[in-house]
Structures are given as structure tokens and as C-alpha cells.
Amino acid sequence: MVRRGTTPAPLVDGPKPKHAQLREILRRLAEQELSPGSPIPSERDLAERYGVSRITVRAAIGQLVAEGLLTRAQGRGTFTASRRLDGQLYLESFTDDMRRRGLAPTTDVLAGVEEEPTASAAAALGLTAGEAAYRLLRLRRADGIPIAVERGYYNPQVVPELLRHDLTGSLYTLIADTYGVQLDHGRQTVWAEIADPETAKLLAVRVGSPLLVFRRVASAAGRPVEDMTSWYRGDLYQVTMQLDRDVPGSGPFFAQGGTR
């Protein structure tokens, strides 16, 4: 364990190689002693403290960076990563979810237009060829930090003139309060992607960073209302699912709900 004012004993080869020993020391430091965003000792400092080479230090740190426990900032050093928000798969607004965690949610509406949707979205919303839908592009933040980019469509037959309203809060609350429509069912698919240049810029991450992607079609009383795809930062968000034996739909690929 790294403590100020102490000189740790040099690491020696044993059942575990030195880089694996150092990795576990740094893991305990990041998980138990340091708060998120704290710097860890420099490579040179770690090499001197534990009597190992800089190559060994880089190997240990590199594995924890790959796991998402540490993060490198060019020219600044290595830091403990921010803790991931743990999403449960059920129908709850992003706004309510963040407030429940004690975080301040905000939304940037980047685009809101009425246009003919993609064939896939039209089919999901039950629209015929040529019918328009409301397309939204929104950036969701928690305590000012960008968490997710949302791109998708809403059914104008269920939520007419949606674009005239304030879309910076919870759409689920807006739809319920304004239209008397309570979203009660959703079918969601989850997969992983890397950030393209546009999404990376919006989320303030590097191009190629890992993202969790959710595509959800939500309905109310059997009428499809929403076909939305959300790209969440993989370094700040994770999903917990309950898996029950012999219960259809309880697996990781399809689940009801999500966060909005």
C-alpha cells in the first residue's frame, strides 16, 4: 500500500510477477484510499518505492487503465477514474434518476425537427411511408458532466406539437403531464460501440472511446411513442441486470425499460 512517510519494501519475484503485485497495490489504492479523480504517484516515484523498473510500472498501470480503474491525462499524469453510474433497466426518466442520486441533471437540445424518419423508426412507431415524426438530438449531463447523447424519434400522432414545448427536462414527465400519456412498456437492445468523431466531441471523450448504446422503443397502452437510441460514456456508466433462469427476456440483450 502506498502511504506518505513510509518506505515500502521492494517487490520480489514470487508466485506473482512484480507487475501483478504492483497492479494489486495500485488497485487497493484506487478503490479504498483515493477519491475519484485523485492523482496516483508518478511512474518514477512508484519505481523507486517498490524497486522495480519503469517498464514494470507502466505494465501495472496500463492494465488498470484498460479496466477503467485509472485514467491517463496527457502531460498531467495518471488519476483514479470517476465512479460509474449504475443504471437499472426499468422505465425511469434520466432527470429523476440523476436527482435520486443527488446529481443535478441538465439537457442541451441540439436539434428538434419534424421530418420523415428512417424506415426502421417508421416501422417501430407504426407510421406509414411518408409520414413525419419528431426527431430529437439531446445531450444529457449530470453535475455538468456530459453523460449521454440521445438521437431518435417521437410519434406525432400521440404527442402532437411536441417541439413547441420545453424539451430540456424529463420527456416522460412532459408527455404524462401534457398529453396524459404514461409510457408503460419498452423493449430495449443494448450493445457496445466506440465513439465516432461527432459523439466523442459531444461527450468530451476521445474518438474510439468505449460507449454503451441503448435503443429503446417505448409505448403507452400498446401505442408506440418513442424510438430513441442513447450513447452513454463507458467510463461513467454501467448497467446492472437481474438474470432469472427460464424467464424469457431476462437476459442481457433485451430488457424492458431503461433510463431516460
TrEMBL record:
Pfam families: GntR (PF00392), UTRA (PF07702). InterPro entries: Bact_HTH_transcr_reg, Chorismate_lyase_/UTRA_dom_sf, Tscrpt_reg_HTH_GntR, UTRA, WH-like_DNA-bd_sf, WH_DNA-bd_sf. Residues 16-83 form the HTH gntR-type domain. It comes from the Bacteria. GO terms for biological process: negative regulation of DNA-templated transcription. One of its GO terms (molecular function) is DNA binding. Gene3D superfamilies: Chorismate lyase-like, Winged helix-like DNA-binding domain superfamily/Winged helix DNA-binding domain. The keyword Amino-acid biosynthesis does not apply. Keywords: DNA-binding, Transcription, Transcription regulation. This is GntR family transcriptional regulator. It comes from Solihabitans fulvus.
